[in-house]
Amino acid sequence: MAEDRRVRRTRAALQEALLSLMAEKGYDKITVQDLIDRADVGRSTFYLHFTDKSDLLQDALSQLGLMLGTQDGSGSPTARPGPPAASRHSPTTRPDRRRPVRFSLPMLLHVQEQQATARALLAPSGTDAVRSGMERMLTGVVTEELQALAAVSAPPRVPLDLVAAGVVATFMAVLGWWIADDFARPAQEVDAAFLTLVAPGIRAAIPPPPVQD
Amino acid sequence: MAEDRRVRRTRAALQEALLSLMAEKGYDKITVQDLIDRADVGRSTFYLHFTDKSDLLQDALSQLGLMLGTQDGSGSPTARPGPPAASRHSPTTRPDRRRPVRFSLPMLLHVQEQQATARALLAPSGTDAVRSGMERMLTGVVTEELQALAAVSAPPRVPLDLVAAGVVATFMAVLGWWIADDFARPAQEVDAAFLTLVAPGIRAAIPPPPVQD
DNA sequence: TAGTTTCTGAACACACTGTCCATAACAAGA
DNA sequence: TCTTGTTATGGACAGTGTGTTCAGAAACTA
User: Fold this and answer.
1) Residue among B92, B51, B41, B91 nearest B74 (CA)
2) Kindly report the CA angle at B203 between B197 and B204, in degrees rounded to 5?
3) What is the largest CA-CA distance in chain B?
4) Which of A98, A162, A179, A195 to mutate to test the interface with B (most CBs of B within 10 A)?
5) Rounded to 5°, angle at Cα A17 from A16 and A23
6) Which of B169, B174, B204 has its CB closest to that of A173?
7) DSSP string over B16-28
8) Span B123-180, pLDDT tens digits
9) What Å distances lie between residue B122 and A93, B1, B22, CA to CA?
10) CB-nearest partner of B165 from A128, A173, A201
11) Which of B99, B178, B196, B203 to probe by mutation at the A interface, max A CB count within 10 Å?
């Protein structure tokens, strides 16, 4: 069942080359030549495994569990390093106005665990593909949470998808700020700041039901 | 004082080619060959005026008044179409807790005036350069407003630059949502939604002074 | 060991970039 | 109108990167 060891080694070498090069020069400036030099594999070998530079990126991302519901789940059937817990929650927990979204702290902790990788992927030198993949994933999670909240609230004053977009955008901004700050503050403090910024707006956009027992 | 007419025509043709091609295929996929074909100028002519594809983009942006405080003001000494009024305001107006930021509506109106261009530049097919240029500009404006507010408030519970980053990110998200929605709703409504999302968070992050006459 | 799969290196056609230069087209003043 | 300086032109050029192909070497599986 285990794949050929050569295959595993080649793919791993290329993925590691990608990450280390991203940390050094940024995704855009990496060439296939750079990758195969760093990974020490033949040119044809690269194209035997990946169609593209971006194909390699997709693969690396899915292995890291940073892309989750994004596109088809091709890549990691076993999900090696495990995605953040927030994405697995069932909507069984009752929504709480005090804390209208719950994804943020687990997500921050997960990112913190992978500091080096996160820095390489999400730094300004990183590519759109990463950010937008992560945004898509977060939008799914947040939309779910907001729908649960809206289900027990008065009709939203702002379209739900717009609220979700705003929340996700703010989260990405907070995340970028944290990374740029070298993870200097504890995740809990960053999470609190995020909620301070975002929660009152959510409460205003999705107001409590008018009269309820 | 007027430049050589040939120069003006060449530059205008290239800029128009850039914008129309961006609307069609997205900035990244445009090649210099595409540009000179569309503009019908010689290859060497292009490099006589611009060092680069991105150089042309910078020039086009400054002509459009979309980049404002960004970098040096090289390009439009006369500022043809006029930047949004928000960037010109003196900090003479007293900050108002009810409406902690004022930049949004003028900015939305300005974007709406240039619908076609805005769509080409800010659509997902657009480039990072545009978005990040606009973000930088907005961050300056927002920071100024928040500082004015903080000057008459209790110490902020969240670092001011983080608040600014969050506000700008939300605004960009709202703007993207509006554009994707084909400007279907009036700017005033979009502005109201933006403020609903953002204002309560700002008030929470920058609380009123404890005891004041 | 034999048989299969994967890796390799080199060569190839192709696309895009930026530079260069001799010549042609143009603008503006005498 | 003629002259002078500036700008545009097309084509050729070297340089870099991409993605493909192929025959032989190497590594793996059983």
Assistant:
1) B51
2) 95
3) 70
4) A162
5) 90
6) B169
7) HHHHHHHHHH-GG
8) 877 788 788 888 988 999 999 999 999 999 999 999 999 999 999 999 999 999 999 9
9) 38, 34, 10
10) A173
11) B196
pTM: 0.83
Nucleic strand C under 7 Å from the C-beta of A203: no
**The one-letter amino acid at A194:** F
Model confidence at A59: pLDDT above 80: yes
Among the partner residues B170, B193, B203, nearest to A170 by beta-carbon distance: B170
Q: Which nucleotides of C are covered by protein (CB under 7 A)?
A: 5-11, 15-22, 26-28
Q: How many Cβ atoms sit within 10 Å of the Cβ of residue A134?
A: 23
The CA-to-CA distance between both ends of chain B, in Å, stands at 58
Cα–Cα distance, A5 to A56 (Å, whole number): 18
Q: Is the Cβ–Cβ distance between B99 and B163 less than 8 Å? A: no
- What torsion do the CA atoms of A74, A77, A83, A88 make, to the nearest 10 degrees? 100
Helix residue ranges, H only, chain A? 5-25, 32-39, 43-49, 53-64, 104-113, 115-122, 128-151, 160-180, 187-205
- Tokens for B206, please give them: 């920058």
Point out the residue nearest to C7 (C-alpha to C1'): A45
Residue indicated by tokens 């983009």: B57
